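Q: Got a minute? One more chain.
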Amino acid sequence: GGHAGGVRSERLADRVEQVTVALRDEGILSDVSDEGHAFLLRNECCPYRSCAEDHHAPCDADRRTIEMLIGLPVVQLSTVAGGGERCEYLVVKAEDTDVAAPASQVC
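A: Always. Here it is, folded:
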């Protein structure tokens, strides 16, 4: 897919925001909040609500898509398929957020 086109930023916060906006159009994410140590991504309107009760494949595919775009592990906290109110994903911030920058350059 053409997801990655709009996700260019080196800063994690910007990447998460860009991914959320990109995937909002597809009904995969609706909003994101910065929880300090991690970003909490939510989807209030699961597109798979009707079929999700039977299988979790779409949820896992979405999780992998988010993971690929952000470039960090994504943990699925809750799913509509699992009986949750909404789908929630957690992206824990890496110790050094700007992985692309050599450590010697950091002030």
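A: The CA atoms of residues 85 and 105 lie 44 Å apart.
Q: Perfect, thanks.
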